[in-house]
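Researcher: Structure for this, please.
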Amino acid sequence: MRQVECKRRYGCSRIRSDPFQLQDILISIREYALLLLLMEHSGQVLSRDQILREVWHDQQSAASNVIEVYVRYLRQKLEEVGERRLIHTIRGQGYCLSERLPQLEGRS
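Model: Predicted structure, token format:
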């Protein structure tokens, strides 16, 4: 996977998906927190509960589809600059950051 460089400034974050390309992506602080969590657990499936706990600090007011919305925002921004799909939805389990859809037990 290409190196992703993240910097936080002034209420938004910039991502440089390839340090040799000068193409930044502006993302919100919440998008940054979600991406950082996925990067810290790259290759692992994170449950919705885990993501809500870590990124939204288990806020009861978080809408039921808030994770899906922010994953969609991140996917759109990353894919706009030529990245292939890196954030995968694992049905019934959660989300995973990896170059390919992870091979899960019980799946062929």
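Researcher: Any notable elements?
Model: Helices lie at 29-40, 48-55, 66-80. The beta strands are 5-9, 12-16, 24-28, 87-90, 94-97.
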